[in-house]
## 1
Amino acid sequence: MKRFLANFRYAAILFSLGLLFMVSRPTAVGQESAAQITPVDKFLDSTVPEFEMRGQIFVVGLWKLAKGPAPFAFGFEEVLKKSLADHTIQDPSISLELKNKTVREVLDALCQADPRFTWSLDGATVNVFPRAVSSDDAYLLNRRLERFDLKNATDIQNGLLAIVQQLPPPVEQVANAQLGGDDPYPPEPWTVTYHNLTVRQVVNRLALHGGPCGIWIFGGSTEFRSFGFFNTYLRCPTQASPEPKRAAQP
Amino acid sequence: VPRFYRSRLSLALFLFISSCVLAQQPPTPPPPHERPIPPQLPAVDQQQTVAYWTTETGWNSELQLRNNALSQDLTVTPALRLADGAETSLAPVTIKPQEVTSIDIGAAISAAGSPNLVGTYGSIVLRYSSPSERVLYAALMVHRVGYPIAFHTDAMGESPDFQDGSREGIWWLPKDSTSDYLILTNQGSNPIPLALSLYNSVGKENKQRLILGAFETRRYSVRKLAQTAGLTGSYGGIKVAATAHAGSLDTLHFLFDETAGFSAILKMFDYDPTTPLQERDYAHTGVWTQRAPMLALSNPDPALAFPAGTTLHPQLFIRNTTAKPTDVALRFNWRTASATGPAPGPALHLSPYETRLIDVTTLQGAGTLPKEANWTSVTLTTTGLPDEIVAVAASYDSSLRYGAQTPFSDQLTFKWEGGMWEYDPYHNSIITAGNGGTKPTRAAFTIFYNQGTQRYDLEQTLQPDEQMWIDVGKLVREQVPDKNGKPLPSDLTMGSYEFRDLTHTGVGTLFEGKIIYDKTYGHVTYGCSTCCGYSIGYVRVFYDPLGVPFQSTAGQGVNAYENCYQTWDDVSDSFWSRWASANTGIVTVDYYGTHNGVSVGSTTSNTSGYLDGAMRPPTCPLLLSNPKGGANVIKLQVQGNSYNSIFVGTDSNLEAANSIFATVSPSGGTFTIVSSATGDTFTSVPAGGPGWVVHTTIASAAPADRTITVTYTVSGQGTVTKKLTVTARQFAYLTNNSPNNTCTLGYGTTQLYTYTPYTHPDKAAVPAGIGLSGTAVAETFNPQPPAGTVTGDGSLNANSQFGDRISYCSSSPLTISTTITQTLSIEGYQVRQNTLKYSSAGVTYTNLGPTQ
């Protein structure tokens, strides 16, 4: 019960922050992303009729949850090992069988099943990250950018490069190491300026520029930090269906 | 059969409709219909009557019964009537399908313990329960014990609709020693007022009136009647006229001469003066035509086993049964052991009631017919109405001891069910069937044996007037294989037979004949078959109502109940050209009965046509039918994706591409949907229905080999069907572009590959915009990618393609060196393997296929 109350309090704080963020959106100026931020309660309170995991790791469950029936964007930050040469950190296997729970309840259940992680909400993006780094200001994704300028971006790597170039010292290493996923960025160059955001929040926005259900995963090691970007926009209800479900009748 | 079917009014209406609405014949008929088979008709009480039996001293009677049904047993209860109509039932007998069985009347009387039936005569009534009267063919063979005297008479049905008419025949007394019987039998319970007239050869009449009581059999001697009447000559005419209940009258006239060792039957005919030519013009020649198929010529066939040197005198008796002069034409089709050929015959002008004798011997002597010819068929045509001319053929030597007969008949039909044939050391049977039509036809001949359970099949194409000639003894003796390579058993001695017209169904063109000769006495008797027809009361359109798809077509046809086999046959071709719609604003109908839906609504359509019908057994006149039914236009449009494809797999994201939608009017009906591939299943579409998602795990072997059939039934209005032809595609392989390196972080490579899927069975690229968005693309790796590499599955986009980002791009130098294999699968089908080689420079890529 205590954990529930703590989570509830935490979620309430995040909710308030989300609302504050939405209210304070004019802090982002210039060419704003075309992605629409889904109101928080639109998907967090959506019911998932059935959610089942059988011996799978956290991120697999998160993928599954984000695909629907209430699709959403998320960023997932793995627990980083120190060196690439270190043994792989074994993620615990999770088995869950949930029925008629909300997305929020499923996220809570996942974090309860693998308590290394906690989750927060940034606009319509769910961020899942190691609980251990939540108050580590030196952690890359917690670092804050007073101002972030992006000019003529046509690939998400443009955004990553801009982050490392605009962060104050120390110089950070970032990589885009991924297999799979599409390039959702529209061909038109994108220019945008944000103020007073963490790197996590910036990456959320970089991902959302590719579509309303942008997904990013952060992993590797502390000496080789890499991002992968994916998208479930085809299932994302806030995007107009790219093609009619039903052919026109004669 | 109601008489109105035969009325001239119907004929006139038919001709009028024919001339007005004959649709132009489309180039080819539609493919055979898938037709509903109506339920079997209920059995009802039936009966036929044999005009004569006798157990008088020196005479023996044998009843032969044949079950014509295809699959049902038939139980017949014979009852013997004495001359006064008093009746005694015999034991019932059950006959297997296609079986012929015989009952010795004397033995049956003994078994029944009815001594009052010994030494007398009368008629036989045969009672049975069956959907159709024609399921039974019955004949009585009468033998004079110890003499070459034998003849047969067929059973007849009663026709309550035939009231005013007559039985017409020819009398012939070739020698002073010749005896004869003229039998008059009343099949019914109403006394029949009769006028019995005898004519001499030039038509002089002597008439006497009599009342034939209920069920009564009366026996006369024409010789005595002629003598009493003062008629001279050796031949003339007989007319037995009834002004009421003519359809209950049966007559039989036969000759016998113990001194000469001679017997003959002089066939008599029903004459209904109201019968139109069209009812009996089976070949549509515009003239009434009769045939005698097996007239033995002067030079007898050695197969008849007559003594060497026997010379026959074939002759024809032709009689005008009316009070007006009539013209008659004869022609022949002769046969030797090795050749056949046509020959013209004389043209005759017959005075009223005249009987003319034509000596065929003279024609053969004059070269009209070849001298070496053994047989001929005789074809007689007249411009008059049916049965205004009757004819009898006889061919005997001068002593009358040896000879044969062949009956005249106008009957052509699509099926003949024949009685008993015999083959043993003392008997043989020759059976023939000919084409009486004007176009070639394919004839099938079948011998049934072992109680109808075994069959022997032959087929032959017959030109007009051509006959197939079957010497049953030869088939058995020489073990001639049938069309299936199977011979008859060498010890086979009896069975039944059947002819079928394989070319013409509703109105056939086959005639038939059979003789059985007995070597013991050296005489030949002819046998008969029963023609098969359709029960005109049971001619129905396939679908009533017919559902016609809007702006599309629906085939309609006609089923008719065939009264021998007792099956529902497709007789649609007999109704082609006469289809009509009651409202062409709703439905139009073409030559072949294909209905076209013009607008949604209800109307009716009808057609008409002649079929070989079933009048008074054993006749099968052409009868007019006018089947009709509702024709309702129902809108059913079915549409799948624009690629006419469905995709193999279980991914729920295939739902859109595999969806089929229906648009209907009127609404409120019910659907059924089936696939030509077993195992395909359907679920309702989640939205936008009515529609169904096709779930398949079976790929097409060839393009467009899968048919999805949607059937829509509106209660009371009919059913329409739409077929959607699709290809069930299985993802097979990929092609891809050659992207540039877009890594902008400083070190390494980033390439975005765009893959286009191709599918079996035709290696076609999947087109864009067919609803495959979201279809899962799975990626697996061996070994696993380097640490820090994020992997994820993809999915097809709106263009039915997918992107695959291969990125190893960092803001700091790269250090890893390894090689992995990437495997891509769509819907569980492996469509590509790549080698990915990691180094400090990034990732290089090698395509491992498949490439087709």
## 2
Amino acid sequence: MRAFFFNTFLINQKMHIDARKLENGSVLEADICIVGAGAAGISMALQWINTPYKVILLEGGGFEYEDQMQELFAGKTTGQRYFPLRSVRLHYFGGTTGHWAGFCSPLDPVDFKKRDWIEHSGWPINRGDLDPFYERTQEILELGPYEYNSAYWQKRDPAFLPLPLDEGRVWSKIWQFSPPTRFGVKYRESIVKAKNIHLYTYANVIEIISNDSVSAVKELKTTNFAGKEHRVRAKFFVIACCAIQNARLLLASRRQAPNGLGNDQDLVGRYFMEHVEVKSGELWFAEPQRLKMYMMDFGTTKTRAELAISEALQEKHRILNGTASLNPLELAKNRPAFIETWNKNEKEAEKELRMKVKKPIPSSNIPQPAKAYKGFQLFTRIEQAPNPNCRITLDTDRDAFGVPLSILHWELGSLEKRSIRTIDELIGQECGRAGIARVKLLDYLQDENDPSWPSYTGGGWHHMGTTRMSDDPKTGVVDRDCKVHTLHNLFMAGSSCYPTAGAPNPTLTLIALTLRLSDHIKKSLAGQTH
Amino acid sequence: MQRRIFMGISAIGAVAIGFPYLYSCSNRSGDQLAWRPFFLSRIFDLQTIMETGRAYLNKEPAEQDRRKLEEILLMSSKASSSEPDQLRQYFDNSIREDFENGRMVILKGWVLSLTEARQCALFSLTHS
């Protein structure tokens, strides 16, 4: 009781509290508790500013990068070569937006559909359900208007010309670029100054504790390196810690549910998805081209296009959705693959990570706008087919707080490889038909019976799908409102809810989904009030 | 639609009437440039055209005959004249139709129309 009053006093003074300085055993209470102050968590908290509700936002780290905090994200990987887990997410206020590149594009309508050639595909919501939230997300990410039609951007810049292709076959899918918004910088003041948003830093949630019947969350247990443990109680809990940590936290919360919370169907952690990102071919024009619409100068470019395959052709060829970006070969050939850059030993990765946080994304090797090129590298990014064997499990090794570390098993199959090959072939076919260019597939794609992947195959640090969404509790961890099926007050926010990945980078969609969740909880709370 | 029908009828007629004449002329040195894969020669050097042609012939050994290749190329290109410009135009059309209809072949990684692959093969035979 004493602790509760002590906290209340603190809260009345300021809305940011360092949980290391609270009296041990404090009990914090609110209407909503959001766990994780990354893109999803902060986006959600922003929606609640100046509402009559009290919101607690818990962040495990502080406002700056710290090795000790990153160490809590360490883990093992098996299967397909992957990045060190401790480096793929940032554990501080602002989360991984601290080093993201700002690529944004909505999922295509086909991404939400049940596709009979892709097992476990299909969302319980569609693109139209997300459109209003995509529009709201544009502002949060400091993007332009919610316009992803190439014709719109061409009107604004006549030099922004799409390749003369049949859009019914190969079309130019638009990306918009966030500055990129560093949430930790951009939204810190708004969050800290908001009277009803109570930000607690150094509040690592180590367990979700449910009631005895495992039908609702009773409280969260947090800790920090000062050795303090606190409890957080709320009407609604939103876990927004990223796809890997969301699953880890549910799996590690075994006090009342031996297999982890929400895991009655053994689905938590399964269907982990990444984007397969790999150089795949070359596109050669008869004459040098500037291709302004497809070029990118990091920090300057606001929009660019990538070549995408129509829904009809995806269905005809029974392939995954994907897009190919064009990069001048002259520049791209000397650029190391992401997986090489980020898969050195842990110390080197850590050093690079620190540098990235300070000075994100190298701006060298960018295309010169005035220069024209004949040869371009095709860099293809595809969704990964949902696969129950790609998953997060718990290790017997534990972190400094005693929480089991994650093990990520990532595997790629024949559908992914065939899809990349087919996408590039279809681009080659359409460019040939238009008489503008020819495509050359890279060696690893030339034998259609070869299942192997080249060493430079990587992902985009895009983690999705470990608490997938489905109307049926037997096939999904959360329902269409991102509520854990078996717990009436527990919600998962972010890309862990994706049933399929689509081709675009996940940030725009995960925030849109979070805004939708936020509206849903507001309605639920209003319903409880009246 | 009408233009397509007209082109189709013209093409069939052209093959029937023009083929013997064309074939007799096809070895003239002045025509040889027209037989080369025009678009590819703006991307490939001669060596690459040769290698691509050899790759095609390895894949389709039954076509490893210059006269046979010329015959197939003219049949598929629906040529009606031996004028180099027109011949090139016919090949261009044939290549576009190949891509439209999925008549493609992958040689050394290149996604090529069947016609231009055969042009490469013919080039490799005439320059080996």
## 3
Amino acid sequence: LSATPGPPPAHLPPAAPEPAGLVERYRILHKAEGLLAPALTLLLAFLISGVVVLLTTGSVIDTLNTYRAIFRGAGLNWFFQVGSYDIGIPFTDSRVWFPWNTDDFASQSASNLQQTLLLWTVLVLVGCAVAFAFRCGLFNIGGNGQYLAGSIIAVLIATELPKAISLPGPLLILVTVLGAMLAGAFLAGIAGLLKGTVGAHEVITTIMLNWIVVWVGSYLFNVGGPLQTDAAGASGAVPSSDDVPESAKLPLFWGDPLLQGLHIGLFVALGALVVYAITLNRTTLGYQVRAVGHNPEAARYGGINVARNYFLAMAIAGMFAGLAGAIDILGWQYRVDITTIQGATIGFIGIAVALLGRNRALGVALAALLFAALQTGTASRNLDPSIFAPGVGSSLAVIIQGLVILFVGADVLVLLALKRLRRRRAARSAAA
Amino acid sequence: MMAYIPHDRRARAWAGVIVGIFAALVALPPIGLRSIAVPLILGLVALTVGIGSWIGGERRLGGYGIAAGALGFVIAYLATRSSVTKLDAVVVWGALFAAMLRYATPLAFAAIGGLFSERSGVVNIGLEGMMLTGAFFAIWGADVTGTWTMGIVIAAGAGALMGLLHAVFAVTLRADQIVGGTAINFLALGITSFLFFKLYGAEGTPSDISTIPNVRLSFLGDGFIGDVFGSLNIMIWVAIVLVIVTWVVIFKTPIGLRIRACGEHPRAADTVGIDVYLIRYAAVVVSGILAAIGGAYLSIGFGNSFTENMSGGRGFIALAALIFGNWRPFGAAAACLLFGFSSALGVALQEYSLSVSTLFTALPYLLTLVAVAGVIGRPTPPAAVGRPYVKQ
């Protein structure tokens, strides 16, 4: 068979013209599917969790009340105070009009919302860390370790550096944040390097690195450890670090400083989302990373250095996670202790964020908001104890996260079912 | 004299490892030399032999020799610096080895479980969650029924369900197996904590729960053997039997051949009439059962309580042991013993410093990282592990 390019032979009737807008329709459909799968996933996860709640509480009303309590616990009801108010823009004297009561920063709902947004900040960053690696075809389970490495180095720099030289606050913050990003990049870079050079699977190496960081961190700050606090009040038995100095703490722009108000890290997270999108979609590096993620063999054939991109993608992913660690330390934690080190799960929730957000900047932002609200809304101190005893609510959040990950992993299934349905319909209309 | 130096490359490498171990032993009780000279010489000999073997191509054993020589000298140095009374309190070999077996047992169950799953071609990073499931349902079962045997049975059932869930998504739905495993870990943590807080609340699990008994073998006497094996939990003996049975099943029976075929080349297995899906389902369910039994040992064998997230990363250590042991039953068991020993030593070292003992906990992960980095003979996973199979 020899294919000769050119116009179709004249004796054939001209091909039927494409129905107008078909391409456009398919494009919209394709986009809708991209939204449909995550939406279905969420719906399914919340339904199944609803069944769990129904089984334990025994009534539909209580189940609905539970979800309403979670909504309130996340502070989302803050948006539903009707009125005309305004909010100050940080570092300026200007104010922006808002349709809800922005002067209300001390109420329960405002405080809850601040918690949600604090968590959103960090989830966006660890979500980007997982998502960036995903775009290069790498599964970064090490977000947790990279986050912790960032926290540990941030505490180290912010507490030790002022002892050597005195720096102005903003400079100290900058140095601390850069150090934490480097720490995350270093840790993730090990996994990227091993993947690129000897082909060690990044899942194995990042899991191992996670736990190495957990236990090395525990060693550093445990009783008798080299970096354990010797503050007067601690009496030598507290397995925790020193507090970072006042000058290194991130300024708050909303909320009560005594109740963990919202700090300017929020804008860092927004900036990180922009950097994430631009790096991936508008730079050579991003193009190469995506090419490798799409098909490493084809990328190699096209002259892209695959090993280099594995390393860079992981290092950049680690930077996002390290940044998250620094922001948590400088923003509201101010110290690390071994309980938080050993109990950290934020990097794993980052996996859920990246999966649900389909590794896109906007998706990550929305998924992070969902999980931040879920986590905050079910926390023992926010959730009404008459709805759920302490601990039960946050376990429910973990169940929902697990279900989301489970269904997102199988979202191909949803799409396949849709496609099969459409094909069957097409076959039926062809037969008719 | 020269005739006594082994000529065989492997034997020489092994000799290096053993000399390295002796470098540490001479400075520890019961020998307890207080001079650093002998360990230094032994360490250097081990190092030289190790480097020689490494250059000579015996990478893995040579690497072990180098590590043993260096570590042996460091341990001996630290031992000579420590006071004798503290040293005698920490280094009680009988107690250390018994503790090693106790710590290694839950790891061994989970690692062998992971071996079945991964040998059949399904990655299982959900071992941690399956273990946690077993830990909770064992104590709940033992509490409700009043007997530890039913506790184990219920734990195994719950683990089987977790395995089945993983199999449905990994095999039938062909979802990403690592995503599935991550989901299992989340679900297990959520479900066990949910039930734990709902059923037991702030008081925790009751303290009068029926636990797995120890086997007392008084005829072993009071010596070293008696100290180690005289009073071990039933599950430790079961674990030892399990490792041997697994080796037989995987390498000496047609079923094992089928499992391995599915993990190495599922298309070939399918062509000769093996039901790849069935084998993979069975293997993943078995892995869930075994990991859950390992978890049951944690809650009603090792201790008699359940706390939130009590598996605390042991499932991942088991995964590390599986990789470190090169996906082989005895290799994985040896890795579990090594990791168990490091845990036992870490606990014993609390005598010196609480923080140093926590550093010891990082050792299994570090060793596995070094192993997969290929410094000492890289482990080779089953060829088709992690890849869903599409029937044709």
## 4
Amino acid sequence: MDPVNLVLFVVVVPAVVAAVTAALGGWLARRLGVAEAGRAAVAVALGAGTLAAQFASALPHFPPIEVTDRIPWLVGLLMLLGLLESTHPSPGWARWKDRLLVAILVLALVLGPALGPDWPSLRDLAVECGLVLGILVGWGSLEGLAAHRSTAVLGPALLAVAGCTSAALLLSGSVVLGRISGGLTAALGAVWVLSWWLPDQALGRGGVSVLVATVAALLIEGRVYSFLPLEAAIALAAAPLLAWLAFAGPARRLASWQSALLAAVLCLVPAGVAVGLALRAAPGEYE
Amino acid sequence: MPRFPILRALGLSIVCTFAAGRPLAAAETYVADPVHSSLVYRIKHMNATYFWGRFNSINGSFTLDEANPAQCQFEFQVKADSVDTGNAKRDAHLKSPDFFNVVQFPTIAFKSQSVTRSGDAYEVVGELTLHGVTKPVTVKVVPTGKGKGPGGAPIAGIEATLMIKRTDFGMSNMVGPLGDEVLVNVGIEARRK
């Protein structure tokens, strides 16, 4: 893999697309008097960066041929959901209903082509219910964190998890999944940097939806269609939960930058283990 | 009005057959022996050289009819999961959604639709299903021999060659580092049904 090509199309282009989308989108939304303009811009920017990485890798087929061709449709829908979540806040029960529907949609889009003729067996249903529950727990947890902490503080922890997800997917056999995940990471990085100057560009209610459901789809695809070890997928999915420890108990007294650093380190432990597991499972090198 | 016209026609056909120097061959159907059948392919890497890969699981059957090539039929199925390039990491990559996506598309299949004779070979037009996409392709099929197998059963062999563009079948990742055109060569040894 050409490293220049990799840096350009997986890091630089998605980051620039996300930064421009977030800055211009936020400015435009504010001009139009849209409530929560910054959150709306972040949701669209994360999706735009992810799509930029996938389109730079290879244009998806229309109509979709294979499972990866479905990712842009999911991301597009998540951008729309994120936009609506931020501009038209709905009551708590309605947000949970939306999350449940999106979690089921993620499974239908990603697992659908792999379902055998004997579906649904009891085991299948148990696994799928577990996945939906996992997505909902991760989603609720991250929304909770984003509601109490700024993007500037939360950013490093999420960047650590997203970056490790990208590395683990790359190691597990699919370069394209790694590149899409890398694009999401770069977009998140751009949003994080922008949030230093524009604090209203927050991840909560909008950006989190794009982040959680896209990462869930990529991890499930990496596990089912590629060779991502199950333990690595679980470690990556669970890693953001550890960020809570950086904001609870005695850690509450820490300065913002200390909390950000602690959360990043805590998340990096399971995420790093996941990369190690993917590396160990990888059968060797080739170019 | 000739008497016994049917007998005369029969006699004429027997004379013609022997005059041609050989009996008319009936259609013979053969079932592939996976152990002695192979599918290898060739693709260009970095625009520098060709490297070869193979699939280790191939099944199929064919019907040969020398007298009436239009009656010939060829079909084979390959398990995509059996791709083997001699490098485990590369095989894993080839099985992933970046290329064959073997979970979603476990089978590669070919089925002939029309056959014409072309010298010693057959020109076979059929449908190839690869990566979930079915497209018409033209395959050159050469009968490579006949004989008896170890158990004494009649066997026959064919070699099929075709050139495809992988992008025609939706396999469009990494075109550039890896070529688009793929030369496929199938050798099938089969036992008469």
